[in-house]
Please model this.
Amino acid sequence: MEPIQEQDLRRVVETYSHMLLRVAMTRVPTTADAEDVVQDVFLRLMTHSPRFRDGEHEKAWLLRTTLNRAGDLCRRRRDDACLDAAESVAAEAPDYGPLLSAVRSLPQAYSAVIHLYYYEGYSIKEIARLLALPVPTVGTRLARGRERLREMLKEDDIP
Model:
């Protein structure tokens, strides 16, 4: 495998870094952790030099790798620190707005699906492929996540 060319890496970073950071922030408690995850994803891209069929395959690989690395970060801590910290950061982060803060405070299974569906514009089938889940599972997580959001926003009197 030959290493990725500098101009290709630059294009990937410029095109996807903000999206990957947003996705990572749905899984990890702090912006610094999310930045570390994204940096690790780009490092993996440089060292593994995967071959992509097209732009969608490249984007899917980057998203899946980001979600996996964020999950790895939380598992390495071997406790609920990620989830607890994510909930407190979401509650203390008015710059995200109430809706995104609520999405960030959902359990990871729901927040990732909701983020990919609403914020990144993926269909349920595409999310199922990205996360290697059955389509009905993604639909169920989306529905349950919506319901939890509805309850949370109702409790906070957010329209």
Residues 21 and 118 are 16 Å apart (CA to CA). Residues 55-76 form the longest helix (22 residues).
